[in-house]
Write a structure and sequence with these properties.
This protein is 74% helix and 0% strand. The model has no long low-confidence stretch (mean pLDDT 88).
Length: 121
């Protein structure tokens, strides 16, 4: 439990949540680029016929899954920190669920991206 009675503690927790959101989005974008890079390589060497998915696909999917895990864990950690704060540390009428809703929507869209990637081919 925090004894600072300062709203800056809450805002620091929220900034940390948003930093994890940016990190997750970056990992997800990098994973998607890696996955698509495999298609580019297949276009460069059309004579080679691939029976399955190549390594770039699986590495890209791993990066996207890592991003989803990081963002999900950040939501859990943020909620844990909020439970330790006193009411004086959270500004009146401030929406504490906005960052969580944003992270959760990115996680849901990331799951949709994974479903799309697996439905192709």
């Amino acid at each position: 439990m925090s004894d600072l009675n300062d709203p800056r503690v809450f805002f620091a927790a929220e900034r940390t949540l948003m930093a994890w959101n940016r990190t997750g989005l970056t990992l997800m974008a990098f994973g998607f680029v890696l996955e698509r890079f495999g298609l580019f390589l297949h276009m460069l060497r059309p004579a080679a016929v691939s029976a399955g998915r190549d390594v770039s696909f699986w590495i890209g999917v791993a990066f996207i899954a890592l991003a989803l895990g990081a963002m999900s864990l950040s939501i859990v950690q943020y909620r844990r920190v909020l439970r330790t704060l006193r009411p004086v540390e959270i500004p009146e009428r401030y929406c504490t669920w906005g960052g969580v809703a944003l992270n959760l929507s990115v996680v849901v869209l990331g799951i949709a991206l994974l479903a799309y990637l697996f439905s192709e081919l």
